[in-house]
Structures
1.
Amino acid sequence: MNIPNKITLSRIFLIPVFIILMTVDFQWGSWNIGTRDLPVVDFVAGLLFIIASMTDWIDGYYARKYKLVTNLGKFMDPLADKLLVAAALVLLVQMGAAPAWVVIVILSREFAVTGLRLVAAGEGLVLAASKLGKLKTMTQLIAISVLLLHNFPFSYIGFPFGLIMLYIALFFTALSGVDYFVKNWHVMRDSK
């Protein structure tokens, strides 16, 4: 297994740690960040999410620069992203920071695209992420990061940046999903 794939695997292993931080009632105190409090454990979990998210850029950059792109990496990298994003979105609904219907739409798109990838894999094809898909991922990661940090630093001015970014991410999620299916419809049409 090459280094980019190991980095991707490390992102997958960070997900349970992130979930534990977000669900276990650690009493680490909190900071006042303007109009609300930011529990220290949420801050640590948010930073862990950001670090895990950055590994997506690092493994992709390293794989392209050193020509280490593999079919395993093309499969594992988006899967790791989906697992991380899905865990964070579900936890944001539990926290009351994200509307459930938005999360359902985002996760539905992710499952649909994953299903299409599995059909393609059964046909011996690997479908790489598109530029719209990368934009979708970037907007999701920004929205989730800000929401995990209780809208910090925008909470000082009462501006709902995290929620606005979540709706922007929803737009790009839907758009990239439609684009992905239109461009790869032949996979569904020609599957045996």
Note: The first helix runs from residue 3 to 23.
2.
Amino acid sequence: MSMVRRNSSSPNKSANNQQGMTQGRGVDFDIQQELARLQEIIYDSFHIPLTQWTIVDEGKLLDQLEIIGDRIPEAIRKALAVLEQEQEILSEAEGYAQRIIQSAQQEAAQILDESGIIQQAQREANQLRQQVQHDCETIQSQTIGEVEQLRQITTNEIQQLRQQSLAECQKLEEGANEYAERVLTRLEDELGEMLTVIRNGRQQLYDNASSRGTSPPKQTPNLPKKRA
């Protein structure tokens, strides 16, 4: 997030400026770091072989989304803190301008006795005061607009990511059920074929024993029949 600031020769203002920029970068880094962690969770999840599906731990996914959601108010709070520091900087600038104006007025009163010169100095002081006030209002409006824009963008991105993740989880669950059904059906068919071979072998042994006049092999309980 970019910040618009008025240049000043005040050392305190430069230091506060640098601190505000550092906090802004910290806010962006925290959100980006948590989004990267969310991406790692998806990449590290179990991938179903021979498919394009990946099974994601819903608990981890929702927990990470909750962490990101918690970071949004923190980011706004930090941004408001930057705005407060900006207001302090503007107040210091205005106070600095006021001191310059007062010093100019005192020097003008001491050196110049003519009323015209004094009035001219007063007009210039009023113009400078109005200019400082205008600059302060402009910077404040820009900063508030940037904070609101960041909040809206971040909220929309989190909402879209949450909806997309839930949809993907539902698709993965449906795909996993279909895959399991196919595997179980194939195993059932293979077991049915094996049972058929076993029954035929038993029947052949029984028929051979009967044809030779020998006692047929002891009957064992029938194996379960293949389901229709």
Note: The helical segments are 11-43, 58-111, 115-211.
3.
Amino acid sequence: MQMTTALLMANPCDDEEDNMAMLCCHSDKGEMFLMSRYPDEDELEITLDDEPSSLDGVKVTLSPTRLLIEVAPGDADVLNGSDHLEILHSADADELAEIEQTLKNILDGTGTYISELN
């Protein structure tokens, strides 16, 4: 599955939402992707359009133009039957540090983060 977005919205620690880390985007076709996690929870939540699901073992790779989310084959229903979601983005280089910190917070202890930024 693939999406294209101009903007990845990231918040590594939302004080107003009990320190939840959140990454969100809307595709150029109106699809919405949201990945979030509260610091005291063992699973992260992925919402694709209006369908939230709790997961662990998610693998995320961030590059300057691509965000790749990979789930176990048994969790493919979360991504409409696919075991991965590739989000092509055009985030500014200065936003990537906040996106990276957000992903580290979300995946800490429950998933794998791979950086292709350097």
Note: Residues 2-115 form one domain.
4.
Amino acid sequence: MIKKLLLTCLISTLLFAEQNTYTKEQLEKMIGKMVMLGFHGQKIDSDDKIYNDIKKYDLGGVILFDKDPNDKKKIKNVKDPKQLATLSSQLQAINKSKLLISIDQEGGIVQRLKESKGFINTPKASVVATKGENYAKNTYSKLAKVLKNSGLNVNYAPVVDLSINPNNPVIVKLGRSFGKSSKEVIKYASIFTKEMKKENIISVLKHFPGHGSSQSDSHKGFVDITKSWQKEELEPYKYFIKNALVDMIMSAHVVNKDLDYSLPATLSWNINTKLLRKELGYKGVLISDDLQMYAISKHYSLDDTVKLAINSGVDMLMFANQLAKPIKLETIIDSIYKQVRSGEIKMHRIKEANRRIDVLKNKL
């Protein structure tokens, strides 16, 4: 009993010492690197909030959108190709370290760079998969060049969800999946990622561990896939991990009680560490889907969200500032900082996430 108590005290002392190895400023920057943030603005100068976020806190990345969520007639970040290239250049020049400048550009309904704004149109995945490999290669080669010329370096695509449920409202009905079989999805997702890589664009596989069988949309609320999820939905991830073809994976805000009885995937150690890391062998960056989506934000506080996500194995936390009242980077950092100091968020996870993000950025 005494030995066990002494061991507990020793572990507590070592953890406290590890946390206090870093100054407040150093730890805040380590946390800042773990955030992917949405912001309003079509151009940047030194008076802008996002400028300070990047400069002071080493913000890990930004996510860009075309429309203002509060007034879709207004522009949030993207006006046209020339403006976007200038914005990206301004963002990238703020700090010495590489900034991840990301966007959702799958094709079809999920395109922030629209043909009406002077960009090319990219067909949805379900259409591309009907036209053959050469068509897919040509389509995604053109898309990759547009992203490169725009100064972007991360694309939240391809979707590797399987079209299991024909009534799925957020993936299948919108044509965002390449097909029902994992073989078909792997074939076209591979073409997508290879074309992105040629232009040094990081592809993000989504949505782990699979969103193609769901009955509802996690943007709007709680999603339970326990009865509909199939093990085949892991096959694309197994293929890309085994062949070292993936640098980033995005988690899904779905609940599968057979994998984790109570927590959605984004917040689940069983899914993000036990399954993805230990069983599938993934060593790259895991980014959350937008943590302001209602499947998360309506059920968990900010403190609980960041604590559970980071401890579960998520390396980058996305706050897109699209679906809810904008949240400041300082608010996010302050929550994480306090919980690291208290030991509720493990310091080793902060260090581990920073290492993975550094490896990713060094590839750019």
Note: The longest strand covers residues 202-208.
